[in-house]
Amino acid sequence: MRNSTRLLAPLILAALPAFAPALSQAQEATGPKPPCGGDFGSWIEGVKAEAAAMGQAPATIDAFFSSVRTDPAVLRADRAQGVFQRDFVDFSRRLISQNRIDNGRANAERYDATFDRIEADYGVPRGVLLAFWAFETDYGAVQGDFNTVNALATLAHDCRRPELFRPQLLAAIELYAQGGIEPASTTGAWAGEIGQVQMLPEDILVNGVDGDGDGRVDLKNSPRDALLSGGKMLSHLGWRPNEPWLQEITLPESMDWSQTGLDTQKPVSEWQALGVSGRSGDLGRGDLPASVLLPMGKDGPAFLAYPNFRVYFEWNQSLVYVTTAAYFANRLEGAPIYDAGNPPPGLSGEEMVRLQEKLQARGYDVGGADGILGEMTRQAVQAEQQRLGLPADAWPTRVLLDAL
């Protein structure tokens, strides 16, 4: 899913009913927010006027909005955040089941020709799309039952992030005009995504592909359409063909932990000179820029993140989600189970909020005290670890919390 400012793709985890879909760590938009709030009917009239100014026919606009209403369940889902308070090892073990691995490999064979086409046209490996397909909808089995137009209208009317959702609502009108959705009956995720790889209306308009040759783009019922559209979208977002995305590594004891994290990049050749090596297989080309990613600190799993890893954040902004999705893509391509190591316990959600509040009091922008360990919080943690003489691996522990 894509927008000019990034929106976190929802998780539809049929195998994990305790997990609620959640938006998290969404980027703050720049500039004034579009109109939001107030009387819903009056607000809809404003959207209709904007759609008409964009060239939509009055009859199309009226038909599109004829059954629209707000959906309180959408707002409840939007406020749910608990899933992203889990650490990488816990999160990845919950999402990556043997059933998902087996189904992924079976689907790789079933749609072998489609994946060959995606790799030839867009340079996106099959494991990458299989991982998204698995996590978003369990390979198409659970696509969401929220009315798409109601979800988009509800979130565009809500004043939390109207700058993200109003353009999607307007794009949905164009999608309707093209015959791509039916306002009264099209369903999907609570945040307005549609289909087996969960794409927003703008993405469907730009990247929708008729993969099965039936003359229409059907992301709900056609795996070929969904997979090719997802591949085109990743290419549009900057995927670099024939390059890795994430690779498990081993690190030397002499590692300077302050050099780890996504905000530090070095050519692979420099990391090799410092003693970084692949846990299985060789590292990427020596000239590729890469970052050492320690999702749970120096004693947990370690990865080298290449430029393609950053494209994942264009699909989804949660660090724990994208690391898990990128690792699962590796597993589906034959990589071994990662070495979990023995990291110290992380903080509870309540403790993380306290830590973020302390960091904010020291002048750091952590994106809000939401209890979620996002990249901004990790950068602040690393800076404070350096100041306090602790290993600067960006993994917050109770030692750091107590020291602050």
From TrEMBL:
<feature type="domain" description="Peptidoglycan binding-like">
    <location>
        <begin position="348"/>
        <end position="404"/>
    </location>
</feature>
<dbReference type="InterPro" id="IPR031304">
    <property type="entry name" value="SLT_2"/>
</dbReference>
<dbReference type="Pfam" id="PF01471">
    <property type="entry name" value="PG_binding_1"/>
</dbReference>
<dbReference type="InterPro" id="IPR002477">
    <property type="entry name" value="Peptidoglycan-bd-like"/>
</dbReference>
<feature type="signal peptide">
    <location>
        <begin position="1"/>
        <end position="20"/>
    </location>
</feature>
<dbReference type="Pfam" id="PF13406">
    <property type="entry name" value="SLT_2"/>
</dbReference>
<keyword id="KW-0732">Signal</keyword>
<dbReference type="InterPro" id="IPR011970">
    <property type="entry name" value="MltB_2"/>
</dbReference>
<dbReference type="GO" id="GO:0009253">
    <property type="term" value="P:peptidoglycan catabolic process"/>
</dbReference>
<dbReference type="InterPro" id="IPR043426">
    <property type="entry name" value="MltB-like"/>
</dbReference>
<feature type="domain" description="Transglycosylase SLT">
    <location>
        <begin position="40"/>
        <end position="329"/>
    </location>
</feature>
<dbReference type="InterPro" id="IPR036366">
    <property type="entry name" value="PGBDSf"/>
</dbReference>
<dbReference type="InterPro" id="IPR023346">
    <property type="entry name" value="Lysozyme-like_dom_sf"/>
</dbReference>
<dbReference type="GO" id="GO:0008933">
    <property type="term" value="F:peptidoglycan lytic transglycosylase activity"/>
</dbReference>
<protein>
    <submittedName>
        <fullName>Lytic transglycosylase</fullName>
    </submittedName>
</protein>
<dbReference type="InterPro" id="IPR036365">
    <property type="entry name" value="PGBD-like_sf"/>
</dbReference>
